[in-house]
């Protein structure tokens, strides 16, 4: 699961700088940078704020962060077939 990468990707898709996004999330730019680089794990309250500012429900943010290695080996083939379509649908719905 790469939550930091997904937060960064969604932030950039909305053309928000780290500084502006951090301010809206009521956290420091340094802390946001650490989250995006997977150096710090945000609390659930911070994640709720991040998802709110991104206008993406928290469960969707978690789903978008799932990587193939997070899926049970016997289900990876199905995941790799379905994931691009599901991700595209979700991003189309919640993107800018």
TrEMBL record:
The keyword DNA-binding appears for this protein: yes
Occurrences of domain HTH cro/C1-type (ranges): 7-61
GO MF terms, alphabetically ordered: DNA binding; DNA-binding transcription factor activity
InterPro entries hit by this protein: Cro/C1-type_HTH, Lambda_DNA-bd_dom_sf, TransReg_Diox_bact_type
SMART domains per the UniProt record, alphabetical: HTH_XRE (SM00530)
Annotated GO CC locations: cytosol
Keyword annotations from UniProtKB, A to Z: DNA-binding
Entry keyword Acetylation: no
Protein name: Helix-turn-helix domain-containing protein
Upper lineage: Bacteria, Pseudomonadati, Bacteroidota, Cytophagia, Cytophagales
